[in-house]
Amino acid sequence: MNHFDTMKTLIIMILPILSLCSGQQVSNETSLDQKVLLLLSRMTLDEKIGQMVQVDRRYLSNDNDIKQYHLGSLLSGGNGGPENNSPTGWADMYDQYQRIALETRLSIPLVYGVDAVHGHNNVSGTTIFPHNIGLGCTGDADLVQRIAKLTAVEVAATGIDWTFSPCVTVPQDIRWGRTYEGFSENPELTAEMGKAAVLGYQGSDLKDPLTIMACAKHFLGDGGTSWKTGDNKYIIDRGDTRIDEERLRQIHLKPYIAALQAGVGTVMASYNSWNGFKCHGHKYLLTDLLKEELGFEGFIISDWAGHRGISANYKTDIIASINAGLDMIMVPGSLEKEEDSYEHFLEVLKESILEGSIKMDRIDDAVRRILRIKFQLDLFDKPFADRSLLPLVGSPAHRETAREAVRKSVVVLKNKDSIIPLSKRTQNIHVAGSAADDLGMQCGGWTISWQGDHGPITAGTTILEGIRATVSDEMKISYSADGIVPDGTDVGIVVIGESPYAEGHGDDAELNLSANDLMTLKNMKSAGIPTVVIMISGRPLMVTEYLHDWNAFMAAWLPGTEGQGIADILFGDYPATGQLSYTWPRNLDQLPLSKTNLHDEPLFPFGYRAP
Ligand code: BGC
Ligand code: BGC
Question: What's the structural domain count of the chain?
């Protein structure tokens, strides 16, 4: 008898003791599996398939559809927050949806997911931590765990139960727009950091009100896709990872093994294909490898409409992906296209089950996994936001940890004549570059909006403000966006970098400095003063031909809201300890990573920091 048959027998044995109790009462039962099975045994097919659907709240045609379709989950994707984007606005939104879910026959609460990938980043006023690329450079797993723990508190304060994080991708080509979502190109470092993040989010017991559920993503091989030309442009995001199984396991699987050891509750399937076959329909990867070989007991969520396009047709997409092992589908919905709606999805899913294309066992297994997590999260007993946590959102203590992360993530790559730390007695400093005073830019994508934006998008400290707050009153700090330096300046600091982007929007074939930055650098150079260059970016950019002009060069990645962490390093209040978590190529011929060793030396190797 397999595990599932045993459970079926158990249900038959305990059926007689089932009274018409609600999900709430069921939650008082003793063992987790028993509770799950009791509830499952009382569910209709419509109730079961509803649990398997996650809808983006923007695409709910009507809030009461949560009840009508027995929806199991909602998400707020990027740009998907409530109109009142404050923490209280989110808590109100969450509670309102949860109230509707609890009106269903079995009162099964929703599980609500967001991309809290560097803090509770969709919500105004929260603490925004450095993106993963910077955290990888800290090499400090304890710090990553603490950050995830604080993020969990900020997320839990708004009611939300689940973050689609950590991203444990192992990017092998920095031209990919999601490079910054990965801690490192190195599987071991990624595994260590990813594990720490899971432990931080989930704690030792998901029932703890200060924890949320984590999601390791994107399974499997998202960071290994090949760069190819299509429709006159380069594409790498959602592409094909062409490697043999041994390499797939060596590079991309390791972080999942670590995340599973840490007890990660969910895993997100990846948009990419493996040797031409889409992961969302890959039974070998999702079921044979993840669930059976690695013993994953949580549930697999699809990526955003990731079930689409596996085959030539919508219905076979659904059948193939669920049979492959997807448990919950991020549909995510549509207000315009009937075909993309959850209503249509549910109709086709039901039809596929009734005609026998998807077996009831598969559905029961998926729903069992989902309900298990809901019980583990204590959602039946504590379905609403814990508003006592709201004062902690964006609190000084949380921001202090973010600042610590910023200074530990900065990597000093060049420091001629030890110009850094700058003397606090330097009389006149000129700070240049629009990135020096742009909070949105230093936060990057996945901040307030999906793609991120320039300007004062939330509360925080820009790099310029951080510098001003650090130096004494006798120092004169002037600023220009274009690098035209006033007479009498002793030292120049130029902050350059990338405009915010997320996902495929950040795929970039050139990795060049912008024309604007080049102009600022040129203006600064003509002043003939020592210059420190700070780069705000989601990955290494090509600087080989300019580096000799700069006395010092620091990579600050996407540091988030606490820009003062950069001044902490610039003026020597703390030592610079960050080390490269990605190789810095000398030129584009060295990409992807697998080619680097075959050519000449990179500009800076993995693990580098200036002596
Ligand atoms: C959503 C994002 C999502 C993306 C997928 C956007 O509209 O807001 O969260 O990742 O679509 O393409
Ligand atoms: C992204 C995921 C994200 C999801 C929800 C997708 O487009 O690939 O990383 O979790 O959208 O926003």
Answer: 2
